Amino acid sequence: MSPTDRAAHARSLARRFATTLEHLRTAHGVEYVSAGAMRPIVGTAVDAHAVPPAQPAQTSQSAQTSQPAQTSQPAQGAQSVPQFSAGLPEQSPTVAITAERTLPRADAVEWSAATKLEYLRTKNIGDCRRCALCQGRRNIVFGVGDPQAAIMFVGEAPGADEDRRGEPFVGRAGQRLDAWLTAVGLRREQVYIANVLKCRPPNNRDPKPEEIDRCAPFLKAQIRAVSPRVLVALGRHAGMLLSQREDMSLRAMRMARLTYDASGPKDAPGARLTPLVVTYHPAYVLRQENSASTERGPSANEIVLEDLRRAIQIAHALPTPAPEQ
């Protein structure tokens, strides 16, 4: 066999080997590291044609002795799983592999809420290209806050500030949301905040139905992971998606007693109904304050505070929900 044929044969074997590893990763949730230093786990799919570089024998032995033993069950009360950064940075940071992270996906029910959210962001969403919004985004805006929050806020889509920083509600609308939380005795760190869409629509236009269809499963998975006692929808699009009531105006949704069906695949429909409070989006309230409105009665800002106090009362009255099965 000529040197050219041997090289072609070696490349063919390498591609087949890499494809087999990728199949095991996607089918069984297996994670791989090189024989030397630990490779970063990033939020993009594994290159099926990439082959780990060969390592000297002594490097492999050193790596094996330096790696802590991993167990087949998640560590009890493990604090080593890093909190997930909401945005998609230009260079993804190195994430240490722990016993929880290397478990097969079949054991995901045993994971903490933080681990579920991290897996959803890095493995399921990754460098998402499922709709055209990926072409103009700077960062994926995933979610931020307490993974075990009693109250979860859901907005519509990121704006320019959110797209730049990769974190929801950080611009003027985010400042107003923070002010609302302070007014009702909460802190941003005590709640969980996400959006229906994870990428910014051009010129902050309304989300399109096909964009919502592609992104909604990720929001639903976030809600299952956090398992809040109460959901607060900020804006009509978030309210329609969570309540499944496209026939209602935002004002009608505000006055209605709505629920979100958080039932998992193994639950009967309606087995996990989460109370849903729909209120105005901070951006709408800011626009109302800047307009020459002559409406009488409570202001939009006062209405939102009333809705948030109602959400807190509902959360206090409910028992802690059972973990997802």
Summarize the structure.
By secondary structure, the protein is α/β, with parallel strands linked by helices.
Description:
There is one protein chain. The protein is α/β, with parallel strands linked by helices. The protein has a domain at 81-88 and 111-318: 3-Layer(aba) Sandwich (Uracil-DNA Glycosylase, subunit E). The protein is 39% helix and 9% strand. It is built from ten helices and six strands, in the order H-H-H-E-E-H-H-E-H-E-H-H-E-E-H-H. The chain has helices at residues 3-28, 57-66, 113-125, 160-165, 172-183, 209-226, 236-243, 250-255, 282-290, 300-317, and strands at residues 143-145, 151-155, 192-195, 230-234, 258-261, 273-279. It has a six-stranded mixed sheet with strand order 1-3-2-4-6-5, sandwiched between helices. Helix 3 (113-125) packs antiparallel against helix 6. It is globular, with a radius of gyration of 23 Å. Residues 30-103 have low confidence and may be disordered.
